[in-house]
Amino acid sequence: MTKTQQGIYDARSLGKGKMLTLGLQHMFAMFGATVLVPVITGLSMSATLLFAGLGTLIFHLLTKMRVPAFLGSSFAFLGGYAAVVALGAQQGLTASESLPYACIGVFSAGILYFVLAGFIAAFGAKKVMRFFPPIVTGPIIIAIGLTLSGSAIQNCNSNWWIALLAIVIIIVCNIWGKRMIKIIPILLGVLGSYIVAACFGLCDFTAVKEAAWVGVPFRWENTAFHVFQNPNWGLVVSAIIAIVPISLATMMEHIGDMCAISSTVGENYLENPGLHRTLMGDGLATMLASLFGAPANTTYGENTGVLNLTKVYDPRVIRIAAVFAIVLSFCPKFSALIACMPASTIGGVSLVLYGMISAVGVRNVVENQVDFTKSRNVIVMALILVLAIGIKYGAGDAINLGFTSLSGLAVAALVGVILNAVLPGKDYEFGANPNADKAVNFEINPSLRK
User: Fold this and answer.
1) Which pLDDT score, from 0 to 100, does residue 446 have?
2) Can you tell me the distance from the alpha carbon of 407 to that of 389, in angstroms, rounded to the nearest whole number?
3) CB under 8 Å to 67, separation ≥6 — which residues?
4) What is the pLDDT of residue 432?
5) pLDDT digits over 332-381, tens only?
6) What is the largest CA-CA distance in the chain?
7) What is the DSSP string of 347-406?
8) Which residue has the higher pLDDT, 258 or 428?
9) Do the beta carbons of residue 412 and residue 384 sit within 8 Å?
10) Per-position DSSP letters for 181-209, written without gaps between them
11) Is the pLDDT of residue 445 over 70?
12) pLDDT band at 441 (very low <50, low <70, confident <90, very high)
C-alpha cells in the first residue's frame, strides 16, 4: 500500500482483504447513529440496515460511482415522527399504527429533493450555490458535529472507562499505527472496547441467544403501503404537512455534507458529478426507505470522519460497507449483537467522529479565507452556531412552529441562508475558484482520480 506526499493512501494498491476490512470499519462507524433512530422512533432496526445499504448503493449509482458517501438514518425527522405519533394518539392509534403515516410524510419530503435537483439541472449549480457560500456551509458543518456531540457524551456517561478505552485505541492506532493498523482505527476501537466490556460483564447477550439467524428485515404492517388498506386521510394530510417542511433543512444539511466530503477528499463533487445528482440520490434513497418503514436517509458525517482519519477515499470501500449492511439486515442475531454493544463504546467512537466533522467545518471556513473583518460574516456565522446549539440544548432539540417542529440545525441553516442572501457585501462566486469550492489548497494525486 503506497502513500502520497500529502498522506493520502492510494486506494488502487489495496488488496481485497484490506478493502473488505475498511468496508467493515465504515459499516461500524455508521452503526451508532443509524441504529439509534429506530431505537428512538420504534421503526424496524433490520429495515433500517437494509435501506441504509440499498440507499447508499442507489446514491452511488446516481452519482456515477464517484462520491464516497454512506447514507444512514437522518435525525432531522425525529420531531416529525414524534408529531405524527402524537396526532395518531389523539385519534386512538398506537405508535406502531401511526408510524406508517409518518413514513408517507417522509416519502413526500423526498420528492422535494427532486424539485431542487430539477432547478439546479435547469439553471445550473452556480445560481443555487450562491446561496450556500463557505460562510454558511462552514458553520453548518461545524454545528452538525457540535449538536451531535451531546449524544456522544450521554453515551459515554454510561461508562467513561470503556469510552476512554475506545478513544485511546483510535488515537494510538491512527497516530502510531503502521500500515493497516493506521487506517482501521475506528474498527479496532469498536472491537477492543466491546470485547473488554464483555469480559467485565457489561453486556447482556440474552437477546442474541434468542434471536434467529435468518429473518425478513421488515413487516408488511409497518410499511407505508399498509396504510392504504384502510387509510385515515386526515392523518395522511397532517403527516405530510408536519414533515415535508423539514426537508428544506435536510437539503441544506445535504449541501453542507457534500461540501464536507469535497473538502475532505479534495474533489469538487458539487461540480462533478453535480449537486443535482447527489440530491436525487439522497432523495430517492429516502423515498424508498420510507415506503418500507425505514427511517429517512441522509449522507453520514460519521463516515466522512472515517475518510478524514484513514485517507482512503475510494468509493468502492463505501459500497462494500453497504453490501455488509444489506446482508446483515437479514440476520436478526447480528442486529441483536449490535444492539448489545455498550453505549459507552458508541459514545467513545462518536466523540472522535463528531469532532472530526466540526474540524472539517473549521477547515472549510479557514481555507476559503472567509473575511471576519466584515460584520456581515461575523453575524451570519454567530447566529448559525448559536441557534443550532442553543435550540438543541436549550429548547429540547426543536422549536414548535405550530404546523411543524424544526430542529436547531434546521433553524440555523434557514437563518444563515436568508441572512447571507439579504445582507450586503457578498463576495463569493461558485465556480470562480475550484480550490475554494472544495475548500482545499492542494493538488490531488492523479492516481486517485477516476
Assistant:
1) 29
2) 10
3) 59, 60, 258, 261, 269, 273, 278, 315
4) 57
5) 887 788 778 888 888 888 788 778 778 777 877 887 788 888 899 899 99
6) 63
7) HHHHHHHHHHHHHHHHHHHHHTT--TTSHHHHHHHHHHHHHHHHHHHHTTTEEE-SS-EE
8) 258
9) yes
10) HHH-HHHHHHHHHHHHHHHTT----HHHH
11) no
12) very low
Q: Amino acid identity of 275?
A: L
Please give the Cα distance from 74 to 435 (Å, whole number): 29
Grid coordinates given for 166: 475506545
pLDDT score for 82: 73
Cis peptide before 342 (omega within 30 of 0): no
| DSSP, residue by residue, 203-271 | ---HHHHHS-SS--S--GGGSHHHHTTS--HHHHHHHHHHHTTHHHHHHHHHHHHHHHHHHHHT--TII
Buried b (16+ CB within 10 A) or exposed e, 266-290: bbbbbbebbbbbbbbbbbbbbbbbb
The rounded percent of the chain whose pLDDT value lies above 70 is: 84
Q: What is the residue type of 100?
A: P
Q: Which amino acid is at 448?
A: L
Write out the three cell numbers for 38. Answer: 429506530
- Give me 293's grid cell: 418503514
HEC-encoded secondary structure of 89-115: HHCCCCHHHHHHHHHHHHHHHHHHHHH
Beta-carbon contacts of residue 310 (< 8 Å; ≥ 6 apart): 9, 22, 25, 182, 183, 184, 185
| DSSP letter (8 states) at residue 272 | I
d(C-alpha 220, C-alpha 216), whole Å: 10
In this structure, which amino acid lies at residue 223? T
Look up residue 433 and give its DSSP letter. -
Phi, psi (rounded to 5 degrees) for 314: -65, 120
CA-CA-CA-CA dihedral for 105, 106, 108, 109, to nearest 10 = 120
pLDDT digits (tens, 9 = 90+) for 29-62: 776 667 767 766 778 888 999 999 999 999 999 9
DSSP character at residue 157: T
pTM of the entire predicted model = 0.69
Q: Give me the mean pLDDT over the 293-306 stretch.
A: 81
The reported pLDDT for the residue numbered 401 is 65
Is-contact 148 30, C-beta < 8 A? no
Section 385-398 average pLDDT: 80
Question: Is there a contact between 274 and 124 (Cβ–Cβ < 8 Å)?
Answer: no
pLDDT at 105 (0 to 100): 92
